[in-house]
Structure to design on (226 residues):
């Protein structure tokens, strides 16, 4: 799945930004509070309005402190998937359950320097695992290939039937990097600047999907795709 990140779109025209990627699978919405990350974007009222303005499922990525308090509200606002950071959560299991009870998928995100191993046990409470491939906060940064080990470890756990979730990657994904992410085992690819800096965002989505499929086929041959 390809999830264009509206962080790279024109914030004065978010509904148009959603319309311009009609071939996308999800629309990725970065919520930043200027505390967990040094940037400030949007919150619940904008998510509610976007939900009314587009048929695309909203993939809300909360880069905020105290997600335990705020995350379920994003599910109530219409998000299809609500992802929060393990580094910010006091009670990730309870928060995942509250998101699911409010009708959305629950996602757990890890910053590049955060290890996956300590969280394997709680991942059965989640529907998506978002591996950050840049330091969260800004679009247009360089992809960090060193996070792909976490992707492959999660892929192997999914293949073995130990986990059931979508593996998502976010940061620096474009034509030059999407194949290696797909080969490592990613299911959902977030792309901001690679989509919204393109002359035709929908064409960029299609191109990224083609490249991802090539990489996913190689992943299937080499490590399998459960
Ligand atoms: O969450 C973030 C950044 O913190 C991302 O969703 C960015 O918006 C991705 O932008 P590109 O790296 O694809 O330009």
């Amino acid at each position: 799945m390809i999830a264009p990140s509206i962080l790279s779109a024109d914030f004065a025209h978010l509904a148009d930004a959603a319309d311009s990627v009609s071939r996308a699978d999800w629309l990725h919405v970065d919520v930043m509070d200027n505390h967990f990350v040094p940037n400030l974007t949007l919150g619940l009222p904008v998510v509610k309005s976007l939900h009314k303005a587009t048929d695309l499922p909203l993939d809300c990525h909360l880069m905020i402190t105290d997600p335990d308090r705020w995350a379920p509200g994003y599910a109530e606002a219409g998000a299809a998937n609500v992802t929060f950071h393990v580094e910010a959560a006091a009670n990730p299991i309870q928060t995942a359950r509250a998101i699911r009870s409010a009708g959305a998928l629950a996602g757990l995100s890890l910053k590049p320097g955060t290890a996956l191993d300590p969280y394997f046990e709680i991942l059965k409470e989640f529907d998506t695992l978002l591996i950050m491939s840049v330091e969260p906060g800004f679009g247009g940064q360089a992809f960090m290939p060193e996070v792909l080990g976490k992707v492959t470890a999660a892929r192997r756990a999914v293949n073995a039937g130990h986990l059931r979730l979508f593996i998502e990657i976010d940061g620096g994904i474009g034509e030059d990097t999407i194949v290696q992410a797909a080969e490592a085992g990613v299911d959902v690819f977030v792309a901001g600047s690679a989509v919204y800096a393109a002359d035709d965002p929908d064409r960029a989505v299609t191109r990224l999907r083609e490249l991802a499929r090539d990489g996913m086929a190689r992943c299937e041959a080499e490590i399998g795709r459960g």
